[in-house]
Amino acid sequence: MERSPAVRLTRETLYKLYRSSQKIAALTCYDATFATLLENAGVDILLVGDSLGNVVQGHTDTLSVTLDEMAYHTRCVARGTSRAFIMADMPFGTSQISPQETFRNAARLMAAGAQMVKIEGGRHMVDTVDFLTCRGIPVCAHIGLMPQSVHQLGGYRLQGRSEIEAERLLEDAALLQQAGAAMLVMELIPAVLAEQITQQLAIPTIGIGAGAACAGQVLVLHDMLGIYPGTSPRFVKNFMLGAESVQTAVRNYVSAVKSGQFPASEHRF
Ligand SMILES: Nc1nc(=O)c2c([nH]1)NC[C@@H]1CN(c3ccc(C(=O)N[C@@H](CCC(=O)O)C(=O)O)cc3)CN21
Ligand SMILES: CC(C)C(=O)C(=O)O
Ligand SMILES: [Mg+2]
């Protein structure tokens, strides 16, 4: 039975895709026009990413993006959609102090139209994930390369290379799921590790630079349209090449994710 069009795609619908082994297609989105386009092209999750610091604001990292800015872009995306699932990033500095403060900040993004917030961090975010989840805010955890920690990590580098690092990420994933995380984004980790983590978990994993075994994939919109200046990371594919319109490019991305064709071996580590 089709739900009424007024009802937004729910987390249960995403879980249904996951349980029936259908891949979840996600893209970042920052405004109403693209929100409508992506929704009509079949994108399951619109992520209002703090990557807007790079692609919208022209910064070289995501660190200066504010909660007000995230709420503004979340409102723009929400107005452009009627059924897409909207996830919003908690920007740098809004989830680090305490679970209480994080809840207050996350509530702003939920009020702006998000159905779930995403928080960068491993085991040290367990209390926060539990606090939010118990109080009605679904959380997507984000491990591996955490761009908000770029100065700690020493660059946008592949994570989980050594056995010790890989073991730690496996444990982080299990702890975050146990704390109530509804989904898990894994960024820039070896494909075999992402596969192991995906198999270990009962919640959907969404990969970016994490191979094809994840339950879903996400890319930055401007990267997959080939319009972000500079050289792209290895995990990016330009879907505008050979496509006659933006709509077609996005549709091709959705089918490539659903069929498991993307990411191919040249996009993995
Ligand atoms: N436009 C855009 N796309 C993104 O994917 C993105 C942003 N902005 N802003 C926030 C972070 C930064 N990200 C990045 C940035 C650079 C690399 C990168 O250059 N990676 C190289 C080296 C990997 C390695 O071998 O260690 C690569 O080839 O993928 C990866 C992720 C991901 N996020
Ligand atoms: C790349 C995705 C996962 C993200 O966090 C963002 O766009 O900010
Ligand atoms: Mg982000």
From TrEMBL:
Required co-factor(s) are: Mg(2+)
Cofactor binding comment, as recorded: Binds 1 Mg(2+) ion per subunit.
| SUPFAM superfamilies, per database record | Phosphoenolpyruvate/pyruvate domain
Catalysed reaction per UniProt? Answer: (6R)-5,10-methylene-5,6,7,8-tetrahydrofolate + 3-methyl-2-oxobutanoate + H2O = 2-dehydropantoate + (6S)-5,6,7,8-tetrahydrofolate
**What does the entry give for GO biological process?**
methylation; pantothenate biosynthetic process
UniProt family annotation? Belongs to the PanB family.
> This chain belongs to which protein, by name?
3-methyl-2-oxobutanoate hydroxymethyltransferase
Q: What organism is this sequence from?
A: Nitrosomonas halophila
